Amino acid sequence: MAKKPTYLELVKKIDQLEKKCAKYASVDEQYRNAESIYRTFFENSGAATIIVEDDMTVSFANKQFENLYGAGKQDIEGKIRWPDFVHKEDLEFMQHYHILRRIDPQAAPDHYEFRMINKLNQLKYIVNTAAVIPGTKKSIASLIDITDRKLAEEALNESEAKFRTLFESASDTIILADRDRFIDCNQKTLDMFGCSREEFLAANPQKFWPEFQPDGKPTLALVIEAIKSALRGDTSSFEIKHCRYDGTIFDSELTFTIVKLSGKNYLQAIVRDITERKITEIALKEGEVKYRTLFESAIDTIILINNELIADCNLATLKMFRGTREQLIGHPTWDFMPEFQPDGLLSKDMAKEKIQKALKGETLFLEWRFVRCDGSIFDAELTFNTITLKGEKYFQAIIRDITERKQAAEQMKKLTQELERSNTDLAQFAYVASHDLQEPLRMVTSFVQLLQHRYQGKLDKAADEFISYAVDGASHMQRLINDLLKYSRVGTHGKTLEPTNFNIVISHAISNLSKMITENDAIINIDHLPTIPADYMQLVQLFQNLISNAIKYHSKKQPEILIRAINKSDFWLFSVRDNGIGIDKEYIDKIFIIFQRLHNKSKYPGTGIGLSICKKIAERHGGRIWVESKLGQGSTFYFTIPSKQ
Amino acid sequence: MVKALLFISPYPANNKTKVSMTNDEQQKMFDILLIEDNPGDVILIKEAFKEGQTCNNLTVVGDGEAALSFLRKEGAYKKSSCPDLVLLDLNMPRKDGREVLAEIKTDPVLKHIPVVVLTSSEAQQDIINAYNLQANCYITKPVDLKQFFNVVKLIEDFWLKTAKLP
Hints:
The structure holds two protein chains of two kinds.
Chain A: H1 7-44, E1 48-52, E2 58-61, H2 63-69, H3 88-103, E3 111-117, E4 123-132, E5 139-145, H4 147-169, E6 173-178, E7 181-185, H5 187-193, H6 197-202, H7 219-231, E8 238-243, E9 249-261, E10 264-273, H8 275-297, E11 301-306, E12 309-313, H9 315-321, H10 325-328, H11 347-359, E13 364-371, E14 377-389, E15 392-401, H12 403-455, H13 461-492, E16 498-501, H14 502-512, H15 514-520, E17 523-526, E18 531-534, H16 536-552, E19 560-567, E20 571-578, H17 610-620, E21 625-629, E22 635-642
Helix pairs in contact in A: 12-13, 13-17, 14-16, 16-17
Chain B: E1 21-22, E2 25-26, E3 30-35, H1 39-52, E4 56-61, H2 64-71, E5 85-88, H3 97-106, E6 115-119, H4 124-132, E7 137-140, H5 145-162
Helix pairs in contact in B: 1-5, 2-3
């Protein structure tokens, strides 16, 4: 048994113990205080903070973490492991860090971003600051939620990408410039100027202009002026010549805009290649010049009318109307028309009717009377139609002065009428004369013949001779009159042309001449002949005259006649060839003239009218007649008759 | 062309009032009315009949009105006899041949009388018109004397010697 302690000893001991106790109490308090402090820190660090055990269990979590994670401590501490709230894609590197950190606290970065999927299944962007608690395998992690910032950043990136895409894919060249250098450009720029981005951005902007523009102005001055305008807010575009990287010049349209980026002013230049447009413009201009030239040099008057006013006219118009452009352009068309047209209708009424027709798309062709600036009147041929120019409807009037033509036509008509009348008169005269001459002639003929009949040989020899001359003269005159009558009847007594078989015509003519043919022992060869429209009796007459001539003017040889017909498609060519005496070249043109005779009456009797009748018959049928002949070698008479009427 | 032949009469010249016998047939004396205004033609026709040497009673009137008076036995022609044959010219003063023809052929008493139109007109219209008006024959006066005589001879031969008349 141990010595019983003394009281003192006991008091001392108690005191010692009390002191010890107090000391412990103080330490405990100290600890308590320290813990409370750290606890307060832990709870109010402003960041979501957790303490993670070696096995990744979350052992402590503060208030902020509760908010971030979306659950109470009772559901977190000791309940979840940190991989539970980490985005799958971030898990791997974080586990790697976790292990590393436990081998060497310095081995893993203590500051990194990861994505959290919280209890409420929300995606949170987190900046994590982790550290191993010294002497333990625990680590403390404080998580700062940067979701809002991250989303804003992402949106910004997205929109920048979008604008970048727009920028790059723009069909116009877009260049950003700062003072005197380029800071950015899109792909189109590089395509247009033919260089790489580096080459472009490194180059002096002046490399891309010729020094002077076609109008002689320095390009730089022009550009500076445009930039000044842009600074004043004027963003209108202007045409300028640009140079490609290789120095070739092209036409462009340049637009300057001032853009503000990060509070700073930049110059945005949009360049559009207008080479093609320029070419088209030039072509258009050339075309216009060409058409203007055509328009101005046209012989015909061309007038453009808009709303009843003369909108434009060419030189020919001025000449025709004897006025100046000022006297014509802008004036109502009515000023240049008489109140009434030749047919007595009001010009305005008629014109309105024509305008209606033209509006329907018809091209009108009419005769119209106009008044010149000096008040004189002229007749013209008017072609009138609507045309559309730049979306507006115009009337185009083409005027051709037909005064001369009209006068000529009038004169021709007059002459034709006169000719017709004189022809009719002549025919009438020939007919009446020959007809009315018959009566007294018959008396003369009959009585001289009666005289001869009764008193031949009863008077003296001279009387017999005188009577004989009277009888001859009378009978010749009788033949002349008969032929003249026949000649005039070709025109006045012609039948309508009907399909006529020329083989029958020839037979008829030959039968009429049978006595003559037999007497002269003539041979007549005939081709097969066509059937075409003709006046039967006149054709009989024609052939009869030609055949009888062929026999009558025979040579010493036996008369041989060949009659042929050749189809010349539009007409038939007939020929009557003989082996007779032929015709002297000198007289060839004369033989068809009425009463022209080449021979002595006693040798070849006749009136000289037969071939004139032939000519008249051929012409009445729309054909013609001629002869080819050599003296002593026979003649060939040709005539044509149209195949169709 | 009809070949012209000079008519040579086989008979001796005869007196107008005489009746001659041929081939046992008694030659009747015919009354012919010639309506003709042209004295030349009258002479020629008379001469032609003379050439024919037949004895006919030829009466001549110079215009249409006289002709109708004669036929209707009016005025100065009360004692006229109805002719066996009428030779009618178309173109005459006052009443022309066409009117005379129309009146004869529409007159029941006269229409049986053969009318030979003997004219200088060759007009187709005149020929058609004459036949439409019932002319018995239309002849154009030939210009040639021989032919003229021949025509008159043919008329005589046909109308007076061949055709049977009422």
